[in-house]
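User: My instructor asked us to take a sequence, write out its structure as tokens, and then describe one feature of it. I'm not sure where to start. Here is the sequence I was given:
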Amino acid sequence: MTKSKKPVLAGMTGFSLVWIGQLVSVLATNMTGFALTIWAYQLTGKATALALVQVCFITPFLLMAPVAGLMVDRYNRKLMMMVSDLGAGTATVILLVLSAMGRLEIWHLYVAAAIQGTFNTFQWPAYSATISLMVPKEQYGRANGMMSLVEMGPAVLAPMLAGALLPIVGLTGILTVDVITFVLAVGVLLVVFIPQPEQTEEGEKARAGGVWHETVYGFRYIFARPSLLGLQMVFFFANFFIGIAFAVVAPMILARTGNNELIFGSVQSLGAIGGIIGGIAMSTWGGFKRRVHGVLAGWIITGMFTALFGWGTGLVIWAVAFFFNALVGPIVNGSNQAIWQAKVAPDLQGRVFSARRLIAWFTTPVTPLIGGLLADYVMEPAMQAGGSLTGTFGWLVGSGPGAGMAVIVIGAGLFSSVVGAAGYFFKPVRDAETLLPDHNQDAKAPEMALAEMDEGMDGGVETMPRVTAP
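Assistant: Let's start with the prediction itself. The structure tokens for your sequence are:
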């Protein structure tokens, strides 16, 4: 009888290959996003038009989240990752064809965003749960740091590459590159071995009771553990404020610079260097020993630099603020992700992580509309020369195009800092890592959950805010 060989493209090697495929694909997708942002704003001149693209992406994303988590846990995770990439790639192909035919219109972006949002629902829980299967627990922080580079790294090169290529190949050429990289990412998944999780006792319980029971199981799991719920409330409230701010960041820069594409691209690129440094730091360092400090202190710092971003009126302040804001992002997200990966059994992570993201992003479809409408119809008119609010905020941000959006960004940043600071006043959040056992100690979980529930009722976790990440 032949002994089966361990797959070569597995473990950290396999994970690294998947990571490279995603890095290249996300770089091209960010180039497409940058090019489409310029195109849409030049076409409409409205912040609301850009905000609606975000709404169309996130709404199906949230609606599909519980079902996606169930499918990730039930079916082959590699298949779910490939379905996600292929679906999102199909939306890009539609935009490519319309652009090549000269028929692209603003509403086409909304349809494409809805398709991408639907299929991306599978991506995050599948990729997040895969980390805990492919790398050892002590490497979670580093692996999550690498994944944060997928989010932040391409943001450095994408605006510069898109800005340089747009005059040469046009929007159609950039969309073509995006489609090619989708194919590459799927090709990498085909050759990498991704193990399926072993079934745990808790996982077997989750499967009992039918599809509806399984669909809502992730929510029940989180609500039975106030530390996990508290962490998500931190993200819930902080994402609410940051979502409002970032809905108007791009139009604010374009308005304050007279649609200067070079400054807009430079701010994104220079600021995102901080994200790369933060991701590299997290990949090599692994984060604080008490990861909750990475979450809560990180949110405080993120909010302060968001406020500084709103106060700035030119490239230097914007670049500095965006740099430090992005620097902290991988630490916040990587620390939070490592906590959840250590506490939740791998065969439950699809459902639990999908429920977790739905809780954290519940207000996301609303925040771009709040930011866009507040900017277009309230703050921008009020902050023009002689406007009703120039006497109140003019000393801080000046007046004219973009000043009203700057006030929104400052206020939202300060509120998100308050959310991070509030987390330290709630024991279930502050001591989440000690109150909750790791998933390989689940025998103690019921007693811990009950003890924690008592703590939560005394500490008022129900009123706890949340932060900007998964």
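For the description part of your assignment, you could build on this observation: The radius of gyration is 22 Å. Try explaining in your own words what that tells you about the chain.
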